[in-house]
Design brief:
Blueprint lengths: L12 H16 L18 E6 L7 E9 L5 E8 L5 E7 L3 E7 L7 E7 L4 E9 L5 E8 L7 E4 L8 E9 L5 E8 L4 E2 L7 E3 L3 E6 L11 E8 L3 E8 L2 E6 L7 E4 L8 E6 L6 E9 L2 E11 L4 E6 L5 E6 L6 E8 L2 E5 L8 E4 L10 E6 L6 E8 L4 E2 L6 E4 L4 E5 L1 H4 L5 E8 L3 E8 L2 E6 L1 E2 L3
């Protein structure tokens, strides 16, 4: 294993605090994501923020993983919000490295922001739950959000017996937000009065247990409407089988790519109809053996959310609309002793960072690379560790035909050490993520997209 991250925090505190203030002013108040200047601009510095609505509870540990694929150091300030005063910490992320930052998350209403200055970074979150005796009770991981928004959709939720479903809303800005939550099940959209017009103070988080408003629902999707301000939204599911997490998406789309790996049972595909008419769609499985259509006739009904099983194991899914009507889709994956959720992405990109889905102790990890497009994708791969960048010639390049899928076991290359994987497409575009599965739990997370 590599050196502890604390050993790298060597800059004087006053410098870091001043840089954090600059980053906060330029990033958080404008709600920026990962942005870069045009080539030739001087100075070539970047500021922005990632938003991480992770939740928490007693006997939970939550880490933010911050990776810097650039050639310059990045100064970051991690601010964690709850029902009380925010807590912040600062760090320097050296070029070509990653770092775990543990955050305080002792209540369900917990969320964080990663403000950065000096170079673009990628950020994700890992949540781990244990029993009173320290035995692991599941793990979850998700990317942080590159933007705040005035509307969010969480399609993957359930309140059947044995499942708790929480929605975490984080307001990292200096003005209050006013939010309303709509709950959609298999029959209708519910708007409980207690969830309408809620004032969320500046720099605070709030959490909702959906079982308090609608119990016994196999499918319970959530729409968060923001009447004032902007927020970030995530969902956390808790059960005897473990924990799972999914960040919300800010807009419906006609295509949803939902990667997966290391699962042991058919997936549950959840769809939310957001329009006024039905959105017909098909589902393709993209696996190691190629691409095949597994659902040819399905539809997202307006104002309804439904879940159906899909015979997909160790593979990615693509839900594609048959017409122009968009919808929202999510996926729940199953492994012994734990669950995972993925909200999905509406298409491929050319520059990804797939962040670790394990605790800082590491574990068994898999890189997922999926090509949902119509052309060949040729990608280059590099690793970021706490000690620095690492090239791995054995998997330095992957070529995927249209509909192609690769699940790469990282163990032969890095052992159990957690790594961030930088994936750049030199041709075509891809969707990237990481999955992990060991005695601590099972987690699947999309990577984050950076601008080239």
């Amino acid at each position: 294993m590599t050196r502890p991250w604390i050993a790298r925090m060597r800059l004087p505190g006053a410098v870091l605090v001043s840089l954090a203030v600059v980053a906060g002013g330029l990033a958080l108040e404008r709600g920026l994501g990962a942005r870069t200047r045009a080539p030739g601009d001087v100075p070539a510095e970047v500021s922005g923020a990632w938003f991480c609505p992770h939740g928490g509870s007693e006997r939970w540990q939550v880490w933010l993983v911050v990776a810097n694929p650039a050639s310059e150091p990045a100064q970051v300030r991690v601010v964690t919000y709850g029902s009380e005063r925010p807590v912040s910490q600062v760090a320097t992320i050296e070029p070509g490295t990653q770092r775990y930052v543990e955050v305080q998350a002792i209540e369900p209403a917990s969320g964080s922001a990663v403000e950065y200055f000096g170079g673009p970074v990628a950020a994700g979150m890992v949540m781990s739950r244990s029993s009173g005796k320290g035995a692991p009770l599941g793990r979850a991981a998700e990317p942080c959000l590159a933007e705040s928004s005035t509307r969010w959709y969480l399609p993957e939720g359930t309140t059947i017996r044995g499942f708790d479903q929480r929605v975490v809303v984080t307001n990292p800005f200096a003005q209050e937000a006013v939010i309303s939550l709509w709950l959609t099940d298999e029959r209708e959209t519910l708007k409980p009065g207690e969830l309408q017009g809620i004032v969320l103070p500046a720099r605070r988080s709030i959490a909702f247990d959906l079982g308090d408003f609608s119990l016994g629902k196999e499918t319970l999707a959530t729409t968060v409407d923001v009447g004032l301000g902007k927020v970030a939204v995530g969902g956390v599911g808790i059960s005897e089988d473990g924990i799972r997490a999914a960040v919300a998406v800010s807009a419906p789309a006609t295509t949803w790519v939902l990667p997966g790996a290391r699962d042991d049972a058919p997936s549950a595909l959840t769809v939310l109809g957001t329009g006024r008419v039905e959105a017909p769609f098909r589902v393709r499985l993209q696996g190691m053996e190629g691409q095949v259509e597994v659902i040819s006739e399905a539809g997202a009904l307006p104002g309804k959310a439904t879940t159906q099983g899909v015979p997909a194991q160790g593979a990615g899914l693509v839900a594609q609309a048959d017409g122009p009507e968009p919808f929202v889709a999510g996926r729940r994956l199953v492994a012994p002793g734990d669950l995972a959720s993925v909200s999905g992405v509406s298409g491929g990109a050319t520059y990804w960072v797939a962040l670790p889905t394990t605790s800082p102790l590491g574990g068994s990890a898999t890189l997922i690379v999926e090509n949902p497009g119509d052309s060949v994708a040729d990608v280059r791969i590099a690793f970021l560790t706490e000690a620095g960048p690492a090239e791995v010639p054995e998997i330095g390049r992957i070529t995927l035909r249209p509909g192609g899928f690769r699940a790469v076991d990282l163990g032969p290359f890095v052992g159990t050490e957690p790594v961030s994987v930088v994936v750049r497409a030199e041709a075509g575009s891809v969707v990237v993520g990481q999955a992990s599965r060991d005695e601590e739990g099972y987690a699947v997370a999309l990577g984050v997209v950076l601008q080239a």
